[in-house]
């Protein structure tokens, strides 16, 4: 027995043209011992995509692979009323210097497990089993969305183009992160 045909093409997601786009204030943090703003290709890709999608680049910084320094920068941005979303790039691997997930553990109120799962599913289609080395993750802290992406240019492009550009668009249906923002601190 099949599913009844409603006559309407079913898509997994779509933009509702009757809704207005709401710009988010997004901060980008690169975690690296070797990059600066002139050599930070992944951070630049994210910044270009953020502004190209109509969002405001509220802040951009680079910190070394240090849990304490990552936590300090995240906490500062989380405390700001001018930042809705923080996206980090770098430090999500499995080597000794990769500590971004450990820093996130210290600041997150809630994890969004589906973000990392979906990222690795999409990544698998491009890099195969190598995606198992990524500890990409998402979560919420004090009403701010946080996403930790790998440091490669391909990974940040994929995460933005295939996940975040949609979830950070208030017109995206059937649901999106922007619609949830006013309710993130409810108790």
Automatic annotation (TrEMBL):
It comes from the Bacteria. SUPFAM superfamilies: Molybdenum cofactor biosynthesis proteins. InterPro entries: MoaB (IPR012245), MoaB/Mog-like_dom_sf (IPR036425), MoaB/Mog_dom (IPR001453), MoaB_proteobac (IPR013484), MoCF_biosynth_CS (IPR008284). The keyword Glycosyltransferase does not apply. Coiled coil: none annotated. Residues 27-171 form the MoaB/Mog domain. Pathway: Cofactor biosynthesis; molybdopterin biosynthesis. It holds the Pfam family MoCF_biosynth. SMART domains: MoCF_biosynth. Gene3D superfamilies: MoaB/Mog-like domain. Keywords: Molybdenum cofactor biosynthesis. The keyword Coiled coil does not apply. Belongs to the MoaB/Mog family. May be involved in the biosynthesis of molybdopterin. This is Molybdenum cofactor biosynthesis protein B.
């Amino acid at each position: 027995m099949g599913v009844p045909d409603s006559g309407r093409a079913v898509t997994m997601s779509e933009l509702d043209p009757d809704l207005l786009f709401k710009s988010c204030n997004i901060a980008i943090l690169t975690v690296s011992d070797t990059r600066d703003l002139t050599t930070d290709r992944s951070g630049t890709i994210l910044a270009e995509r953020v502004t190209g999608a109509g969002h405001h680049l509220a802040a951009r910084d680079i910190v070394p692979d240090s849990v304490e320094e990552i936590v300090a920068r995240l906490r500062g941005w989380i405390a700001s009323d001018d930042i809705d979303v923080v996206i980090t790039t770098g430090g999500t691997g499995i080597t000794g210097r990769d500590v971004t997930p450990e820093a996130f553990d210290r600041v997150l109120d809630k994890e969004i497990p589906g973000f990392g799962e979906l990222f690795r599913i999409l990544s698998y289609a491009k890099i195969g089993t190598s995606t198992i080395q990524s500890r990409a993750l998402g979560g919420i802290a004090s009403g701010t969305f946080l996403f930790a992406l790998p440091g490669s240019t391909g990974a940040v492009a994929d995460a933005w183009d295939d996940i975040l550009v949609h979830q950070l668009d208030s017109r995206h249906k059937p649901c999106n992160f922007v619609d949830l923002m006013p309710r993130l601190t409810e108790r």
